[in-house]
């Protein structure tokens, strides 16, 4: 399954963006989904995760209260709503997925499907 992330852009600190992640083809099995980001010169970092049903989510501490991960199963889309953006949120954001009906995963090693990334730039 190929995942396609979109919605990145250049914004000012305090602004909001919503990222979307959709599979390129039909997905007929349950997928747990996650968002990761990588800033220039830094390692990839977990941001948020959501399980198949949407009733379990995880966030890295630095985005708690500002970012919200959600999914619309009818549209087969996962979202990352990012509010109160900060310059330190600047990174390329990647969505990831893996077949699982119950859990949400916070480690990149747990995912076997990745999107191409969408760039988010936050200026002060």
Please give a handful of descriptors for the protein shown.
124 residues; 11 strands; 4-stranded antiparallel β-sheet; mainly beta; 7-stranded mixed β-sheet
Please give a structural write-up.
The chain has 124 residues and is mainly β. The protein is built from no helices and 11 strands. It has strands at residues 3-6, 9-12, 17-23, 31-38, 45-50, 57-59, 67-72, 77-82, 91-99, 113-114, 118-123. The strands form 2 sheets. Strands 2, 4, 5, 6, 9, 10 and 11 form a 7-stranded mixed beta sheet that branches. The protein has a 4-stranded antiparallel beta sheet with strand order 1-3-8-7, with no helix packed on it. 32% of the residues are buried.
């Amino acid at each position: 399954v190929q995942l396609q992330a979109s919605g990145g852009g250049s914004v000012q600190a305090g602004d909001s963006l919503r990222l979307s992640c959709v599979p390129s083809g039909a997905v007929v099995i349950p997928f747990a989904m996650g968002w990761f980001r990588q800033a220039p010169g830094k390692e990839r970092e977990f941001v948020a995760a959501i399980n198949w049903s949407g009733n379990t989510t995880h966030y890295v501490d630095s985005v708690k209260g500002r970012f919200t991960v959600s999914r619309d199963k009818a549209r087969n889309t996962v979202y990352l709503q990012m509010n109160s953006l900060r310059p330190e949120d600047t990174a390329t954001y990647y969505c990831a997925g893996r077949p699982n009906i119950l859990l949400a995963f916070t480690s990149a090693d747990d995912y076997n499907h990745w999107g191409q990334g969408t760039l988010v730039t936050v200026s002060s």
